């Protein structure tokens, strides 16, 4: 293998490039990306950039000059898996190995496009919305997911009236369960955010610029700025003619090899891989996963990977009101929860399935959530988790 093309020069793509070099690959590495500003710390888009706490220069991560990488700024159009070529605008790039790391894009808005209606994915989105927030008073957030709630916290800090409209009965209930979701809803309500759950948006209205949001139950919410935050979809448009079924992302086996190939791997938000830990295909939109999977996928290309597969208990964080919400693992299919500790707004919860630990989530609990990662990866018994939590309490109180 002498020539590797990496599609997407962001978190997963650069992690793969770094890992290729660390594993001794001295051939040509070309990274292709359409976003000229890449790479940057995308999580800061809904935090420091939106708030105006950090600027364009501080969000950027320096290009790793020491790795001898080539950056091709172009839009990926097509891949021919048989001929081993990638087409990006007018350029055709042959490869011996290909890393697909094109991430995800905001789910397209089903509503009318008007001025001051945003989606939040790129640095440019974050900077434009920051400017618009400065002249606005009433923000309506469509979707109470992680990004929606982060934006609610930032907008309150900036002094706006904030309303969150969420279709589910509890914000983040699907990800963290009803109790944790209620805890977060209370956190926001206590700081003046209006949270409307179990409500559907029917339209966005205005003449040129947004003026209101209507709900299916007839409610009209005045708004001079709106964020449509209804999830993301894998960035797979350029793979449409590849012959791959990309409905759920790029289909991969347990080793991140793209189905039917040995010279193509995928990593990060775009990869739909068989996670041996959960024994099912998953797609994970977390920063840390993009780094870890990028590294694994690169080693897979070189045949230097763990043959058991990329078994991962994904880690996620979100910052709201100066507190860090974290989770490790996946709550999918949980049948029991255990509150490991609760102190004011601080909360630590374990999720179990059939007596085994599958996830730990915490709010404002420092490094505690991460300290459970090994137990989550080992699918320890819930009893072992209770014991560890008690020991920790004893240490704190003795
Ligand atoms: C606003 C926001 C806040 C977030 N906050 C957190 C957080 O607090 N914690 C956390 O764990 N995760 C967070 N995430 C998720 C995290 O940022 C992603 O999981 C991570 O960036 C995924 O990295 P990636 O390399 O797979 O994809 P991306 O970061 O999406 O990068 C993909 C790259 O591919 C390029 N690309 C895509 N299609 C094409 C094409 N056709 N042609 C050329 N180039 C293309 C893009 O320009 C992009 O540079 C957040 C995400 C967003 C949007």
From TrEMBL:
GO cellular component: cytoplasm
Keywords: FAD, Flavoprotein, Oxidoreductase
InterPro entries (alphabetical): FAD-oxidoreductase/Apoptosis, FAD/NAD-bd_sf, FAD/NAD-binding_dom, FAD/NAD-linked_Rdtase_dimer_sf, Reductase_C
Residues of the Reductase C-terminal domain: 315-386
Protein's UniProt keywords contain Oxidoreductase: yes
The keyword Oxidoreductase appears for this protein: yes
Domain FAD/NAD(P)-binding residue range list: 3-294
Single Gene Ontology MF annotation: oxidoreductase activity, acting on NAD(P)H
Cofactor: FAD
Designated name of the protein: NADPH-dependent 2,4-dienoyl-CoA reductase/sulfur reductase-like enzyme
Organism: Saccharopolyspora spinosa
Lineage: Bacteria, Bacillati, Actinomycetota, Actinomycetes, Pseudonocardiales
